[in-house]
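Lab notebook, bench 4. We co-purified these components, and the gel suggests they stay together. Before we commit to crystallization screens, I want a quick structural picture of the whole thing.
Request: model the full complex, all chains together.
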Amino acid sequence: MYCYLYDELIHDNKKYEKEVLRIENRLTDLGITGKTSRLALFRNAEEMIRDEVDRGVSTVVILGNDDTVKKILNVLVESDVVLGLIPIGPNNELAKLLGVPEGLDACDVLSARRVEEIDVGTINNRRFLTGVSISDFKAELMCNEGKYRIAPTTKSKLLIRNLDEYSDPCDGMLSAEMESVVKKGVLFKRNILKKSILPFKSLAIRSDRPITVLVDGDEMEGTRFDVGIEPNVLKVITGKERVFAS
Amino acid sequence: MSSIEGNETIIAQGVKVEGEFYSDGNVVIDGELKGSISTAMGLSVGNSAKIHANVSAQSAVIAGEVKGNINAIDSIELLASSVVTGDIETNLISVAPGARVNGKVTMGKVSSNRGDEVVDNEE
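Here is the predicted assembly.
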């Protein structure tokens, strides 16, 4: 059974009214209609979806954007439901990565129902899909249960990738990439970017001072971050045009 | 269990590793490493690399500086810019003109010892 979750961004906005109507008609034509739930300011998205899952929903389709997915990510991982996307409006990077076109065309991807099981990252017990970044990285990575430490010796940036065009989110691994600025040349020194790559399942970021970490675009602050992976825990409908590596 | 499996690890210039580094995949080092390094596959030590560690790998290509013993099960290739201070154990060795080795070279019947014991070979 399908459940269509409308983000408040969609159903409160006249701009999307016609498009939503066309989508609903297309879903009817394809024979994949289902229950409808609408997010609202004081309604807990996770509770709503949990209730729907308890009532037998097996596929949750979001009409919204990346923020809508973030709101219900925990429920999706903890239950055995499949996630489908109908991207509407701005901030739909996730749909692009998964090969789901915007608006009406997404219905055909839903109908084809190509389901993949992707990894979900965790940082201090918070889940993330795309990745984590630290723009001015001056901390240490503690790897393999603290058996070795990795630290930059020059100005560096840290990216932890799970789902993007350069990563395979189905491989059960995360990838830490440290981009360091290195000076080259004898007389005329120029800055060159050097990239370190470390595939891992778990590591810890430790810093003496509080640092700001961007997790799926949201800020987190702290001195200790434990990063891990839950392999293949999110079932998601992808399109043929998906751009993540595999 | 190792936190690294099957994929290539690159430690570039501008990065320093300290401790017992282990990988199941190929490893490329252009930065600094102190402690020990062990990989079940190939190791490549670039020109700019500074390794102060015992090394254990299936095969190794060295272009940079290694202070420590090297155990390469299949083969080791010392390029012209390499400077090795330590003993080498391998089944097949190739030494380019200009490569510097200060240590004992033992060939044949080499098995992996994971490079766990850190031996300081200060000159």
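Residues 1-6 of chain B have pLDDT under 50 and may be disordered. Worth comparing against the SEC data before the next meeting. The CA atoms of residues 30 and 49 of chain B lie 4 Å apart.
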